[in-house]
Structure prediction request, 87 residues.
Amino acid sequence: MAVTIRLMRIGKKGNPSYRIVVIDKKKKRSGAYLEKIGFYNPLVNPPILEVDKEKLEFWLQRGATISEGIRKLKLQRRKSASNSKRV
Prediction:
């Protein structure tokens, strides 16, 4: 079974928040997932991104792939962290 780590949208219309989940690649975005490993809330300033690193490493060792959305979030977080250090 091929699994991927991706965002699962939750929340009301116009008020999105996301769960970071491990899910079978063939499932829909909001389908049943294997495990919840984090949370992302883009509406607060600064956005909240919480990930259980142990669970993430566990699934990556098992061959899970990371979705494009999660990759972009990781890049944003690194850029914002490096910009805050420069100031």
Summary: The beta strands are 3-10, 17-24, 35-41, 48-51, 65-66. The longest strand covers residues 3-10. Residues 3-86 form a domain with the S16 Ribosomal Protein; Chain: A; fold (CATH 3.30.1320.10).
